[in-house]
Amino acid sequence: MTWNSTTVDAQAWIAAGERLRAGDAHLVSLWGEPGLAHMAVAESSELRLFHLPCTANRLPSIGRLHAPAIRLERAMRDLFGLDAHDAADRRPWLSHGGTYPFLPAEGESLHQIAVGPVHAGIIEPGHFRFTANGEAVVRLEQRLGYAHKGIDALMAGAGLDRAARLAGRVSGDSTVAYALAFSQAIEMASAVQVPPRAVWLRALFAELERLANHFGDIGAVCNDASFTIMHASFGFLREKVLRAAQACTGQRLMMDAVVPGGVRSDLPAEGIEGVRALIAMARSQFPRLVDVYENTASLKDRTVGTGILSESLARQFGAGGYVGRASGRSFDARRDPGYAPYDELDFQVPVVHAGDVNARVWIRIQEVEQSLSLVEQILRRLPPGATSTAVPNGSGEGSARVEAFRGDVFAWVRTGADGGVERAHLRDPSWFQWPLLEAAIEGNIVADFPLCNKSFNCSYSGHDL
Amino acid sequence: MMADLFVQFCEMLVVLGLAPLLAGYVRTLKARLVGRRGPPLLQPYRDLLRLIRKEVVLADSASWLFRAAPYIVFAATWVAAALVPTFATGLLFNYAADMIAIVALLASARFMLALAGLDVGTSFGGIGSSREMMIASLAEPAMVMVVFTLSLLAGSTQLSSIAAFMQGPGVGLRVSLAMALVALIMVAIAENARIPVDNPATHLELTMVHEAMIIEYSGRHLALIELASFVKLLLYISIIGCVFAPWGIAVAGQGLEAYLVGLAVYVVKLAVAGLLLALFETAIAKMRVFRYSDFLGSALMLGVLATLLLFVSRIA
Question: Which structural domains are found in chain A, ordered by start?
């Protein structure tokens, strides 16, 4: 994919915002560093990076023109003091000092339900404020930022090894995708060519990660409808993937398996055997479980028609992953822009238009089938050779978009002359999915929220940075 | 008289002693059915012991009602269970109370629990209480219709008499009875907060019914409420057992042997019912909150039809 990176003035910044509003482009990310705001926009198969120097820490708001930017701008003010001064919503986002005014909802017999940030299950922290009329949800507002770790600040000035480890820990369930996005950005900044075997191994790890998470998600959605047998069966499949991953990389989640310049170590023989056995087992068990899902009327009754996300919102927010693809947005970072080795692999990007919980489960089911086929292709065609190359020191700028199981992870880095990271930014797909969950639950009943939420399965940690 | 009192006393202890075991048995079965090892059978006893030892944490806004409710709920449920002939008829209390009293006792327990849920003033207590009342408003009439059907047939509202009638030769195959059985099972599922109406094992606050009402309870209060819900499950299974499978129940005046056989048969009935419950719960997903009215509405309709059919068949 072509990209260009330009320093712009306020007029050009606003002009980009106008193009976003018109729908000619979609927002990839918006972030800052002291005195400088950055925006990444995908426009006619080109990634454009705009850098806007901010005098007196002020900049014109994009969120005013294009709603998906609102939370990014609020986070930017909290983290870097860059103030989008004409924004409509000037409340803090990641910063939790002081009282937080929730948006009002007015009407007769409305009541509020506060859930979280600490939840009864073992999940990440986040606060949900429902305004409901009996069982019907009138408004849901999220309050996030409880899992803030200061990734941006930790990255600034970090050596390459440490920065890569940090990138792999932004969101633990997507550690391969994050490490891959970060590594690709570094490799672009320093113009390194990764050996082919490493490229293919990275894809293998990424597909295993996708399989593990999709298995877990499908089971978890069923579990939220109290259909525990699917949860147990998919939990079993996920465990098998994790064990195969351990055999391949020595770590169940494959943390730090992908490093700038290649992969940390070559695939051991038992790793290949493990993955082969996994695929054979999944091929025999998965279709049976899909049949159970399809033929259990009580379960389908819960998922069909619940939490419908409209196609226009999915398009406007540039929702990635199953959230977008279940609402008619045909986008997959593996295909467009696309990166090696997926250009040589045969796979489809499933798209449906229903936009409900069932559609999001269905996309996952189809993606599992695609990933199984991809893993088989990769094992068959895995090229021999070296698995890593040295990354030379030198300053540069690079970015990458990698398809994680949730959607596209965007990474941007600027390296210093010593080879370390000067500034880095990682944008989780959840940034553009969390707001859509608020929209999807409207008009549904309170008791269906867990099901909708699980079908989105947004990352708290990746979003809170 | 003394013998009746003794049997009654034994029956109450058996009910109390077996109820946690039944709950543990169903949990273990459900775990095994999905391929998990599951908790040990005796885990509910341990849980109760643990809760009793723990201190009670009360919300600042809790009134006396919140503290009193667990005792009332437990007492009402236990007394209701004492009225059901589990392994022997001729219970002492049986002459003083009947099926209508059982329904009323359970309704009082539910009323207290719903009040307690509202008392603390948290949103979850309110959600739970309002959902529970929605279920109750349909489940209770359905239950009353079932009681009508049975008592019209047997000519008595006492469970002992109904059980005796059902064992007798005059029953025959009746459509009314089949409808009453289905209605009673549906009511039992709703009343005991089982899937598909409620999920006793969920951690999702927003989907809870029974668990949402009691979410603020802790320590011995929670232990009592938990025990009451175990007893309630046993009670419903016992009612179904004594009316629709009345075999093996010892009759007053029989020897010790008959009582022991009665007890053994009763345990087998519980085991079979627990297995059926576990199978049913594993095979079905929880329904949408707004489908409760469809589900319980059909239970009510079945109850009404069962009663009506009795009259129709009598005229014919």
Answer: 2-84 (3.30.460.80), 151-428 (1.10.645.10)
